[in-house]
Specification:
Growth Hormone, Chain: A; 79% helix
């Protein structure tokens, strides 16, 4: 499985991208742990704080195609450095905010713009440009696993910091940890680009986007990824609140998030290997379908610590393991010349779903006192996502002959 990335230069590029994602995703996916202490400290209310995090979900997705386009045109180095610094700045300024609007600006916009600029579209695009064809599937799984490992590490560490030194100091510590990703940028961008024959004639970025949006399979991919974003954002934002409703300690939530990250390491590596063996659309359909089954089983199970840990392990296996097959389909359809931009647009759809998952969860708990209807919506959308992936065509788009 790993023989394709065993060459030192290939391995270094892959691990550098995985390390950056470990920090940018690990920190961002742990923001939900700050909801309760933020509410207790500021009195802003869960709905207001959820709105800030929901804006963050959308912002993280909206910046992806922009950052991907800039990286495709000018190179990823400046984009990654700027993103890391911006994320650290957003985290560092958050403790000074005492209003909902302030949280939207710092935690919602600045931190998530930075995290998004240092995330999947730029990292996978930069790595793909520097890796041979046979190594890209496995490398994308390893890079994705880096983000999952970050969640596994960051969730319990940040929970301990919140309990030990307070949420403000924990947020400042997160800002400093974020800056530690800067040395890895040079390692990722130092390698020479692999000279490959792109699947697409280079008609420019605008033509590539126009071509993509005229393709039915690309839209179906967006629809499935939208529901993935809804699912992940709802859980990462409101799982601590769900645990609290059951009368369990906060550590259950942080360890559940950590288990999700740990399980997704194996899920991401497995998904990366599956890309080379099976049609990616079937891999995605199986992942989304399994989520609907797991949520149904959770709703029927007793609310105990073991239930949450088993639920987290099951969900974690597919958590962000959807990224390698989704990126693979985009690459198969349109080539890798503008992969950062086109995959970034699918991530925007993912985060539109993420905005709704985070914000509607806050409204549900405020209006009804629990998350029952959100779980039902999550099951329905997961089932829909499994179905819409099946008609996707996995072949390069047919283009008219050009002189």
């Amino acid at each position: 499985m790993f023989r394709t990335i065993a060459k030192p230069e290939v391995l270094l590029t892959t691990l550098a991208a995985a390390g950056i994602l470990m920090i940018t995703m690990g920190g961002r996916q742990s923001f939900g742990l700050f909801i309760a202490p933020l509410d207790a400290s500021t009195g802003l209310g869960i709905a207001s704080i959820s709105l800030a995090l929901a804006v963050g979900q959308f912002t993280w997705g909206a910046i992806q195609p922009v950052a991907g386009a800039v990286a495709d045109r000018y190179g990823p180095r400046a984009v990654l450095i700027g993103g890391i610094v911006l994320m650290a700045l957003g985290c560092a300024l958050t403790p000074f905010m005492g209003s909902g609007f302030g949280l939207i600006v710092t935690l919602g916009i600045l931190a998530n713009m930075g995290s998004g600029a240092g995330s999947f579209s730029v990292l996978i695009g930069a790595a793909a440009q520097r890796l041979p064809l046979e190594a890209r599937g496995t490398a994308s799984g390893v890079i994705n696993a880096g983000g999952s490992f970050g969640q596994f590490v960051f969730a319990p560490v940040l929970q301990k910091l919140i309990q030990g030194i307070g949420w403000m100091n924990a947020m400042w510590a997160l800002a400093l940890i974020t800056l530690s990703a800067l040395p890895l940028v040079g390692k990722l961008t130092a390698g020479e680009k692999v000279h490959v024959q792109h699947a697409t004639p280079d008609g420019g970025l605008k033509n590539a986007i126009r071509e993509a949006f005229a393709d039915r399979s690309y839209w179906l991919l967006h629809a499935g990824f939208f529901t993935c974003g809804f699912h992940i954002a709802f859980l990462v934002t409101h799982l601590p609140g769900e645990v609290n409703l059951c009368g369990l300690p906060p550590s259950v939530a942080s360890w559940s998030l950590a288990i999700i990250g740990l399980a997704n390491i194996f899920g991401s590596l497995y998904a990366g290997s599956c890309v080379a063996k099976y049609r990616s659309k079937y891999v995605l359909a199986a992942m989304y379908g399994s989520r609907a089954v797991l949520v149904a089983l959770y709703l029927m199970a007793p609310r105990t610590e073991l239930t949450y840990y088993l639920f987290a392990a099951g969900l974690g296996f597919t958590w962000l393991a959807t990224v390698p097959p989704t990126a693979a389909i985009v690459g198969k359809l349109f080539g890798i010349r503008y992969l950062g931009t086109l995959f970034g647009l699918t991530l925007l759809s993912h985060q539109i779903g993420g905005f709704l998952g985070a914000y509607l969860g806050g409204l549900a708990i405020t209006q009804y006192g629990d998350y029952t209807w959100m779980w039902y919506a999550d099951m329905a959308l997961a089932t829909l996502a499994a179905l819409v992936n099946l008609p996707i065509r996995e072949a390069p788009v047919v283009r008219p002959a050009t002189a």
